[in-house]
Amino acid sequence: ALSAQSTPINxxxxxxxxITALSDSIALVRxxxxxxxxxxxxxxxxxxxxxxxxxxxxxxxxxTATLTGEIEFSTCNRANFDTKxxxxxxxxxxxxxxxxxxxxxxxxxxxxxxxxxxxxxxxxGKTYLLRIGGWGNGAPGESGVGTFSLKAFEEQGTPTNNxxxxxxxxxxxxxxxxxxxxxxxxxxxxxxxxxxxxxxxxxxxxxxxxxxxxxxxxxxxxxxxxxxANFDSKxxxxxxNAACPLTDADVIACSEDAGGCDNFTSKxxxxxxxxxxxxLRIGGWGSGAPGESGFGxxxxxxxxxxxxxxxxxxxxxITVMLSDSIGFSSLERYDGWTYAPNGLPA
Length: 346
Hints:
This protein has 2 domains: about 15-150, Jelly Rolls (Sandwich); about 165-300, Sandwich (Jelly Rolls). It contains no helices and 20 strands. β19 (about 335) and β20 (about 335-340) form a beta hairpin. It is mostly beta strands. Residues about 330-345 have low confidence and may be disordered. The chain has strands at about 15-20, 25-30, 55-65, 70-75, 85-90, 100-105, 115-120, 125-135, 145-150, 170, 175-180, 205-215, 220-225, 235-240, 250-255, 265-270, 275-285, 295-300, 335, 335-340.
């Protein structure tokens, strides 16, 4: 077993681990390695990047192509640190150079924590060097663990629910899968009230997809991507019984960055009446086009607060006789108070 300070066996290009088959999940173990190899080309920095081009704490893999075609190499939403990746080839000697780099990536689109994704053209029988490391504004740079994928590239199509008119019918539930990758942007702008406090970014919900739900109860519904999307989301609800195309007048609830939600994800509540239909919209934040996109799950749940028991108030106390067993019912909410698990008002 590796200790916290062990150096991976593929710490240098010369000791690269051989990948024998394409896979969607290849283990990446990186514990206190050193840094070698050429600097990351400036073209791989973020568009406004001015940080060093070094790939810190890098490890190496080697793959001999089993096919000819476009290959995707990705740490996107698979690593616990800010990654940089690069591919060198074909059939180059270690440690690679700027002259034989085929592709590189620092912050990939749709990657929640500044991970990376790239594609490159491979030729069957040729060998390629894959390099994974961390970002840094100087030594020692970032380091961590995770997995990566190396697979044949598949073009991402446009989601079927890309427009309001093609909204997907949905029922109450949790863990409902969605993707906004490949979606276009339409619909009204996100109301200013949904921006974070002091927010001044555009009110556009970028790369949006749509769902349609018909209420099966009367009360309060919750719509949430809180902690379950891999990008900075914006969500909105329109209705009741709103027709496409939607307008600002149809918006009944919206959320950008909800309190307690990781990665700037969203959560909202709205009142419903059984039989009414509502349009749910999920998209991404952006200071301008193209905006963020990604994938994850969302929940649509009934969070209606039940009425209190008949003896909710002191004035309505129920008269009892001495007994060894007197039944009672306790609810979480009384007279506007919300109670914490310790029994005290929250």
